[in-house]
Amino acid sequence: MKIKTGDKVMVIRGKDRGKTGKVLQAFPRLGVLSIEGMNLAVKHLRPRRSGEQGQKVQFPAPMPAAKVMLVCPQCGKPTRVGVAVQENGRHERRCHHCQATFR
Fold first, then answer.
1. CA separation for the pair 79, 45 (Å, rounded)
2. pLDDT of amino acid 43
3. Among 25, 35, 54, 55, which residue carries the largest CB count within 10 Å?
4. In whole angstroms, what is the distance from residue 94 CA to residue 77 CA?
């Protein structure tokens, strides 16, 4: 997966289309991402002790990585990610628009 934790992404499909957010967690084996403030799910918690009230907790549910595009930090456009090999053999991610490198 070419998207990592901490990257800024834009949702391109679904109910949150057009919104941008930061990746909180990435699960490469499953191909899903958890994005800050997107795809919010509600979990109902029962009261633990007598006299305590139950709660509704909102949390960002994981969504498929295919539904988001990485936002370039330099040009600010959502972009596909290219991979270039440096002289020392390391791989770096690049923007297809402006050829800027990501982190």
1. 39
2. 95
3. 35
4. 13
